[in-house]
Fold this sequence. Notes:
alpha/beta
Amino acid sequence: MTAASVMASMAATLWGAAAWATDMLPPRARYGYVHRATAAVLHRPLLRLVGDWHTDAAGAGTMDGADAVDRTRSGDADDVDRERPDEADAVDRERPGGAGDAVSARPGDADAATSGRPARVDVVAAARAPGPAPGTEPVRCVLLTDALDVGGIGTVVELLADGLAARGVQPVVLSPADGDRSRRLRDRGIRALVAADERTATALLRELDPDVLQLHGAPEYLERAAIASGVPMVPVLHNTEIHFSTARWVRFAALLERSATAIAVSDTVRAFHVRHCPPALADRFTTVANGAAPPAEHRARRDAARRLLGAMLGADLDDDVLFVALGRYDAQKNVAGTVASFLRALDAAPSDAGPAPRLVFAGAASDWVEYRRARALRDASPHRDRVHLLGPSDADLLLAAADAFLLNSFFEGWPVAASEAAARGLPLLLAEFGGAAELVADDPARSILIPNAVGTPEAVSDAAVRTARRHSRHQDNAEALAAAVRRMVANRPAETPADDTAVRAAAARLSEMLDQHATILAAAARARVH
Length: 530
């Protein structure tokens, strides 16, 4: 073991102690104060990839911008990586899409198509519906949500806003602040309004006179305005909310009691909420699985994407089996445990020449202690050059270059990033959380479901996550993840399979999701909630 590895191992222990101390605080203090304070102290800019990539008619990859690469390093990118000039750069754009703060330039962004670039999918065309019957008035629906540019919820709201109009529902999006996604929606003719306080929200709802409201993690003041409006409500439940306090569950039960129904994005999310709500409200829940925008044809772009990514990483990817993970550096995503378990697979890999696994994790750092700990665990390993921890990066490039998608979160509702990867025909390696079993069942020959490090997904809790994080080096599912990585490497096909089937399946799933939401909203608009 080299001196650098010993120092990195010690650093991982210290960062683990910091994570343990943070985990002992109440969630409100943890997320409201500590993460902000550590970000102010620990945040440093990572390497940046400036511009966007595309392929020409021959499939050759090119970058827009001045060589597209800003090689300037600073801050924590220097701390460990001065001797790693091969580390990839983060994309120099705010992420407008899903995948939980992971990436920018989402493949489904209709407005991302520009002259000379491959056309991005038209979500409405991909999930076309006949629309309302002639002479039928559309259902007026306001989608109330939190920050649109953060997390997978924003992606789902955008998909709904794009697709509901063709199904007889006229959407308006209402959020606390303006941003990239709001502007894109307005560019496509969809009203996206801002209400920074309850008084503004109340006035807007009165002016809009909607038939139904759909709530997507809306902040408390928007909830109050929605309840006070007397308009039928449909909350959409996107995750297993392990950080809800007793008072927060009481507030949710009161909202549910006044709602026509509640949509859970997976059976796991439904079961979790049923356990925490009064039995009399159990029949209010229904499950509608999340969909994802089917991608534009990208098979011809795979080689170009791998060449570009290889150049960014300073690595030859020809014989690599590339696992891509997209998500925030956050306790929920279990980044440190994922890195440690992936390194275990590399420890057991044969030393002779042949396909070898490589991991690229890309995302925004909402918890800089988690990022530092994951990086220290990586740098303590002799295989550190095969694990890359990037900032917000181009999802289109990463998914086009990938051989498999990996997500080992402690909990999820229905991960949008995994749906997007499946839509591109990638095999999935998922821990057992909301939506994972359903996604793996769509491709059982190639995808793998492993146990979750915290146990059964319905029983996940803050305490269980805290315990698993204390054992990030040796989590209960570490060997299962390592074995799954080795199996996927061994079963890597010589040729990438055609993804037409995956694209059609993604379009069908998205269409079904939109149809179900439209049906539920129309029924709620007709109902009288007492």
